[in-house]
Structures are given as C-alpha cells and as structure tokens.
Amino acid sequence: MSWEAVIGIEVHVELATDSKMFCGCRVDAGAPANTLICPTCLGLPGALPVTNGKAIESLMAIGLALNCRITEGAVFHRKNYFYADLPKNYQISQFDLPVAVDGFLDVPVEGEAIRVGIERAHMEEDTGKSLHLGEGGRIESASSTLLDFNRSGVPLVEIVSRPDIHSAEHARLYAQELRALVLALGVSDARMEEGSIRFDANVSLRPTGSEALGTKVEIKNMNSFRSLERAVASEIERQSRLLDEGGRVVQETRHWDEGKGATRGMRSKEVSSDYRYFVEPDLVPMNLDEHLIEMIRARLPELPGARRARYRGLGLEGNVLSSLLGAEPELQSLFEETLGQGADPRSTAIWVTGEVTAWLRRNDRSVGETGLTGARLARLVAMLDEGALSATAAKAVLDGVLAGEGEPDQVASARDVLQVSDKEALGAVVASVLAANGDAVERYRGGEEKVVGFLIGQVMRATGGKADPKAVNEMLVEALAQS
After folding, report:
1. By CB count within 10 A, which of 197, 295, 327, 464 is most buried?
2. Interatomic CA distance for residues 330 and 58, integer angstroms
C-alpha cells in the first residue's frame, strides 16, 4: 500500500527576557548551577507567581507575525505531571485559551510556498535541567543525576503547527523559516545548540488519498535541522515498514539517536486528559485588548517573507539568499549597513555569509567585538572590485580589519598586499619577462596561445604576487601582438 506522511511540528522558544516568567530571578544560561533561584521558581509553599509583561508582549509579537488571532482574555492553566526537574509537580502553561490561535506560516519550497497552519502559540514556564552523570550522558546509562533549577521558570513559548507537512524535507524547511522569523522579531537568540529553540515532530502515516489521521508518534532530541530531517525520514520509513508487515503503530514518544540514525521508544504518549489541566488559581485572565495588539503589530520588523522578496529584487538567489536569511541578526544588520554604503549586494552577501561568518565562528566572536563595520566592509568590496586587492589578499585584509588593525587601506599597506595595476610600473616587468622568455614568445607566435598563462605566472612571480592578473593579461596579449 502507498502511504502518505502527516507531520506536525511543536517548537519551544526560550524568550530573551531579563527575568523569569513568574518571578524576578535573572535569566543567564551561563550562571553556576542553582544560583538563580527563589521560592517561586522552586515551587515552595506560599510563593505566588507574577506574570512577566515583556514575555507576553514577545509572545503576542510571535502570534501576530504568524498571522494568528490574539485571545483577548487568555488564561493560564496548571499542567500536572511528576518529574524530578519540575519542583512544583505542575507546570504553569495554557490549555483552551492560549494567547495566539489559528495562524499560518508560508514556507518557500522550490520557488513556491506551502502554507502550514499554526494551531496555537502559548506561554509556559521551562523546567529545570537534568545532568545525567555517566557514560554517554543518557539517563539509561547514568550512575546519578544532578538537578540545576536555574532554567526553571524561564519564559518558554510553544508553537504548535497543524499536520500540514508531508515530507521530512518540508519539515526542515518549516523549522528553518520559523527560526528565521523568531530571529527577525528579536525575541530569542534561537540557538539550537544551546536549546533556546527546540523542535519536536509528530509523525503518522495514512493510506494515500485518505483524509483520516493515523496513530502519531512524537520524536524528541533533534538538535539541528539536519537531525530533524533525518529523524522524520527515519520514522516515516519505520512506520511504513511496520504497516507493510501488518503491524500496528503505537502512540508513543520516541528518542532520536543521532549516532545510530534511528528512533527508539521512550514512553507511551500522553493525551491532554492525563495532565488534568485546571485554571491557575493564582493568576487572573489577561487583558490583551485591541489597543495593545495594534501597538505590538506596529512594532513588528520586516519579516523573512518580505525580506526575501526585497533581497531577490537585489539579485540574490539560491544558497546565498537562504544563508543570508538564516544568518544571525547582527550579520543581517552588517549586510544592510554595507549596502547603505553603496556596496554590490551579491558581493556583500557572499562576504557576510562566507568569510565573515567563518572568522566569527573560528574566533568565537560577535561582529560588535571586532573592528568590522559596514563602511569598512564596503571599502574592502570596492578595493577588490577596483583591482587593488586580489581575492587572496582581500581575505588577509578582512582578517586584519576583524582583528582591529584599522581601515582596509591601512591593513593592506601594513601587510604589503596591495595589488599593482599601474600600467607604467607593470610595463617594465612585462617587457623584462618577455625578453627573458623568448622561446615562450616564439611558441605564442606559432599559435600556442595558452603560453600566455605561463607568462602571467612569471610576471606574478617577479612582482611577488602583487600584480593585477587581469591587467597583466591585457598587457601581455597587446605586447605579444606587436612583437
């Protein structure tokens, strides 16, 4: 039988707020364990929650950017379950009256767009962090487990898609587009490697052409877009094989094992009734009126869809375009600032997403911690276009600028990499090379035009690699034609 995959994605986004969701504890992922805690985030008796207004506004911005309807009287609920990293034995979350509902996200796929419905975007608090000690850092092989509650109570937005995705590739593209949107809003750093954005996938199969939904399986532990695509593809294959053999898919949560390239069972999948939701008695309904909604809507920045259209109008396409749209906000700002200095869009995009990004990763730095500005990058691009620098020399100059050595012209002079393109200066070198390589000149006269490459190499050697190859080629061809 032919099977169709039906996929929904649940995304958790840690918000970039100064304090936690329901208390005044500072948010800092790098702080020593259990130093950012208080009676409220530890769930001690008598401690009462107070809602973080900035977090709610950030959630509303996400909802509006996802074309959602904002629920004016949104309510918090208690989600009851028991786990060591949840000290209250319940999580403050939302159930039937979330902040944002019924939206959509258009995902670009091969020049077109597929529309993925957004069921809801709601607020909850994050749990503590479990550190499993032992080989592999997994709970099943741990000798003991330590608990760090610094993360307990950090504002966490959950974005739930409708089951409108039908392939592993489209699941990845949806996740990439959603992360780009979150980055554009500036509400989170959305770093997958640090867990500030996390993706879970719900996968089921149904006979092709059927409208009924199959039994879904939730996949966890996917910490990259590549992992997400591989995990979904693996689960589709597993379920297809199981159904073809006459087996039955069990509703469960499965763990993605990156090393083995396969999912494995973790626990039976809960349903909403298992959590015994009830209204949080210590928090009143929110008053998200039209005035607040319109104020936040007016503050929305340019979103990825509009930016993609503008960049295409600048001539950007393919990997350069997708890399730029998925880049960190500071790199996109650098690109915009460089464009403002009159630089060529494509050349600038290639530098920003290529050499600049690579240098920052190698040195674990941000743009603001370097000497690079839009004006300096624009000058570097211009020097390359003018022939003042070779491609190799331009990379060396960029390294110097990033390291704080000054303006591109200063770095180029100090590192002695300026390209010689002055015809008078090069003329003597070209004449000398032709005089010293009479046999090559004769071979050229005999119709062996490729010998020009050899002669260019000789001029480059004589000038220490500083001659402009384009100018040298033109001068050699002219001199050989006259000889």
Report:
1. 197
2. 19
